[in-house]
């Protein structure tokens, strides 16, 4: 704001109260007199008053004085109202627009007539609202009759026109007229378009052909959206006969705009990898927005200039037995081209893949692949060399088996022919014994004998291996492997199995014999890797000494087995402790019965029996291994006891005269002869004394029997 009255050019009237220059200036037009000319208002800037220059400067002082006189006489008629409005108001379609009109006047702002107009498409002014000191209202019959309202009476120097549900047709110029002043605002309406779309050509395009690439489209925007094409993030520019972008605009029934752009160009081989897309720009209230489509590429057809051939699988080196897969591909892209393999002696296969199963070294060689264009019959080819690695079966020398003399050194070799470096390891009983092609065995023993396996591998290729075996025999005198036992105690009548395991080569012959020179029959004889295993079964009838005699061309060896017979009725201990011992005591019964007869007499010995009773006189321990024999012995003892009891009963009856029709006491002394008497002999387990009883009950000496 200026501190004092501004200074205006001579043709401009300065308004000190408003601190600005008047928008009116007088010019003279002869002979008609002065004519007022409206100039745009200017506000001082940076503290200095600036007014627009006049085009009609006074030529002399007298003319200026005349003009000032006329101005003062007409001041009451046109002195002024100044109206200020925004140049434009922007709003989305369907929203509410507010247009503000601000004004000032020397006479005050109260009660001034106010009118709102809009400019029609033909350029005419159409009033839509009026207001004065007595009334106001909305004009009928206009597109805005039902959609506008005015806020404010003008008393504050400001009045606002509100337009509801703005339509595209509302994009017009609106005029605020107050007394002699007026202002204008352009209403701009916007509609955001839908997302853009892009579509490329679906068919391939031959190289050097001028063809359509794709179409971009955006719909329902206002004002009209713009479309720009890009290739690999670089904007495209039209080039005559090379590249062209043709837009087309469609006005929808709603008044919105849809825009389509078609891109065409001369295709090059390099375009096969290019990415095309569109950028759409459109206006919105207060600015500009942009959106992009997705990217597309095109299929370019071009002939091959070279063909590549390679082994797809297996990766790395190939060995015999593998299945290999070869692929072939040209560097062109022509639907009319045909690929074919040729290999071996005139073998061909159409296609870009060749599979060979269980290959051998004979499949090594050069494999060709060619690509021929069936339209032009031009052909290009390529090739690759395939090598099949091999590993022959292992060859072991000596072959199959070998014989080495005990104490001597032995050498064997193992080799396998291969296309690659090999590694050899020797094993015996799955234990590694040597590394390298040669196997050296020093100071051979029977432990040296056995089966040796050599394994040959190719370190460069996993799973590529072969193997061979060699049986080594060490010749020497037989050696009997120490048996588990040589001393045996067994009950009488039991069977004993004796085993003799002999090492030696050639395989020893084994003969079993006893100390009395008897040759025993072998129960079984089996050849083993080290020699022979022989088994003999012997029935124990007494103490026995048995011999295992082994011999071959280089010597002999023998081992002695001692078998001790155990009598269950003797006091000797059993060879092994019983697993379970059951003891029972049967009281000994001593009796003597003499039965007289005319011709003979018999003596029945009494029996004393004791089973597994540990004492100082008699005991029998039945081992668990001979439990069945113990049962038999118990039965025998019971039978003997029953016989003794029977003899006692008979003797008692005889004495009472209950036998042979006799009664009372009989003379039993007649016809006594030692051979006719019935004698009962009683023996004790602890003595060899025999007690002889005659028919009269007297003891007899053994001589009288």
UniProtKB/TrEMBL annotation:
<protein>
    <submittedName>
        <fullName>Melanoma cell adhesion molecule b isoform X3</fullName>
    </submittedName>
</protein>
<dbReference type="InterPro" id="IPR013783">
    <property type="entry name" value="Ig-like_fold"/>
</dbReference>
<dbReference type="GO" id="GO:0007156">
    <property type="term" value="P:homophilic cell adhesion via plasma membrane adhesion molecules"/>
</dbReference>
<dbReference type="Pfam" id="PF13895">
    <property type="entry name" value="Ig_2"/>
</dbReference>
<dbReference type="InterPro" id="IPR013106">
    <property type="entry name" value="Ig_V-set"/>
</dbReference>
<dbReference type="InterPro" id="IPR013162">
    <property type="entry name" value="CD80_C2-set"/>
</dbReference>
<dbReference type="InterPro" id="IPR007110">
    <property type="entry name" value="Ig-like_dom"/>
</dbReference>
<feature type="domain" description="Ig-like">
    <location>
        <begin position="196"/>
        <end position="297"/>
    </location>
</feature>
<dbReference type="InterPro" id="IPR003599">
    <property type="entry name" value="Ig_sub"/>
</dbReference>
<feature type="domain" description="Ig-like">
    <location>
        <begin position="52"/>
        <end position="190"/>
    </location>
</feature>
<dbReference type="GO" id="GO:0043184">
    <property type="term" value="F:vascular endothelial growth factor receptor 2 binding"/>
</dbReference>
<keyword id="KW-0472">Membrane</keyword>
<feature type="region of interest" description="Disordered">
    <location>
        <begin position="578"/>
        <end position="616"/>
    </location>
</feature>
<feature type="domain" description="Ig-like">
    <location>
        <begin position="303"/>
        <end position="381"/>
    </location>
</feature>
<dbReference type="Pfam" id="PF08205">
    <property type="entry name" value="C2-set_2"/>
</dbReference>
<dbReference type="GO" id="GO:0044291">
    <property type="term" value="C:cell-cell contact zone"/>
</dbReference>
<keyword id="KW-1015">Disulfide bond</keyword>
<feature type="domain" description="Ig-like">
    <location>
        <begin position="393"/>
        <end position="471"/>
    </location>
</feature>
<keyword id="KW-0812">Transmembrane</keyword>
<keyword id="KW-1133">Transmembrane helix</keyword>
<dbReference type="InterPro" id="IPR036179">
    <property type="entry name" value="Ig-like_dom_sf"/>
</dbReference>
<feature type="compositionally biased region" description="Low complexity">
    <location>
        <begin position="578"/>
        <end position="614"/>
    </location>
</feature>
<dbReference type="GO" id="GO:0016020">
    <property type="term" value="C:membrane"/>
</dbReference>
<dbReference type="GO" id="GO:0061041">
    <property type="term" value="P:regulation of wound healing"/>
</dbReference>
<feature type="transmembrane region" description="Helical">
    <location>
        <begin position="631"/>
        <end position="654"/>
    </location>
</feature>
<dbReference type="Pfam" id="PF07686">
    <property type="entry name" value="V-set"/>
</dbReference>
<feature type="domain" description="Ig-like">
    <location>
        <begin position="478"/>
        <end position="564"/>
    </location>
</feature>
<dbReference type="GO" id="GO:0035020">
    <property type="term" value="P:regulation of Rac protein signal transduction"/>
</dbReference>
